[in-house]
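Let us practice reading a record.
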Amino acid sequence: MSGMDTVISGKSAEEHAENRAENREELLREFVATNFNYYSQNFAKIGAQSSFTWTFNAIAALLGPIWYGMRGIWKWALPFVILETFALIQIVRGLFGDLGASARDRISQIEATLAFRNQQLDAAIKNEADNIDVFKRAIASLEQAIVDIQQEIVVAESNALWIVLFGLVALLAIKLAEGIMANPALESRFSLWLSDRTIKAGLNPFRNAIAVIFVLTVFAVSILHFAFPGVVPYLGEFPTDANIRLTAIKFVEQLFEFVRSSGQWLFDFISYGIRVVLDGLEVLFVQTPWPVIASFIILLTWLSAGLSGAIASGFFLAYMGLFGFWEKAMTTLALLGTAACISIALGIPLGLFCARRPRFYAIIRPIMDFMQTMPSFVFMIPVIAFFSVGKPAAVITTMIFGGTPVVRLTVLGMRGVPESVREAAIAYGASKWYLLTKVDLPLAAPSILAGVNQTIMLSLAMVVVASLIGAKGLGEDVLEALQYSSVGQGILAGFAILFCAMILNRVIQGQRD
């Protein structure tokens, strides 16, 4: 019986292997759509070796990036489009292009200048001026420049054959690479398709049309523009009308004026709230005697980062005091503290809300991307339009630039809390408040603190920019150094800003176990 069972199990294994092979062949036939036998042999050859397998696909080499696009392998199609376009441009330039076109344009410009100099020379001779020799030397120099450029044109046109040969060699090398890389690239895509059916298989008519139209359009437009410059002017400059931009500018200005006039009460309320917080922090940092503030900062750093951090903070504070930056540094900390406190007070609750609501976070995330990627000088324009210049506008600008990391990292930290821990707490009867305060927040605290730290650091990076719209502090010294090229003042003020950042970093991120 055991021998019979062995025979049966062996037959079952063989049948299973045959079924798997047949199933793979059916899947491969569905994936490649054409030339099944060719791809079956080459894929088997590629899969049998762990190293790179040398094969050559003549159809891929002939069609080039069109073949790769038809197969959906765009990560190879796009580089090959660029390379083939470069090679084709060289061939067409060498055969039919005007290699001296740019040089002739330079000659036209020099000839216009030469005519003007001749007029000046004639006038000088007529008036018997003292600078006749100067005009003669200038004219001689321009004439010699024309002769040199004409020689360049002759040399460029004589190199036409070499340009054609270079393009042909490059094109053949690219075609060889396309043929060699085709089968391994398609086999890799087939392996991905087996596990992810969202990847398109076969030859889709729409994808084929896109590949053909895209590649041929790139070839035609690039060759026409580079090999025959100036034939189609619209290829060099986008066809537009200045009235479109003027109309858009007028519309934006009207929109901002409407928002400002209708929402002035809201902007005044926001400015008042910011001013209250800012005035309180300025009283704390600026008007409080410096020994109190210095000892408070050193003690806080010692409690957070240890003795070495306290010593470093003492050195940084001594630097600010000895070089006359104390009051400006405290003003900067007040401005930064206002922006950071408001950003953190709004950012952490918003991050907690977004962490459990993916749809709402999907709406908020593009807004935060816009806030982080838009240059600071651009979003300063609407801030100034709504809040005028001054410290409230500087605080809002700083909040826009530095307020997003605390939201992002709060969401990241909350989503990183293990579900098993939350489920265990819920199973033991934890309420939502207990779950948030005793489970979620402690486990997400490192990520949230990192977000707070990043918000403060980015806010500090806006010190110089904020000084442009009325914010006082260390940024004002750096701005003056830039305006008057005062290297020493700029470097010393820059180190003061750096030391403020290092103190804040040690206070927030230097917690001991």
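A brief commentary: The two ends are 68 Å apart (CA to CA).
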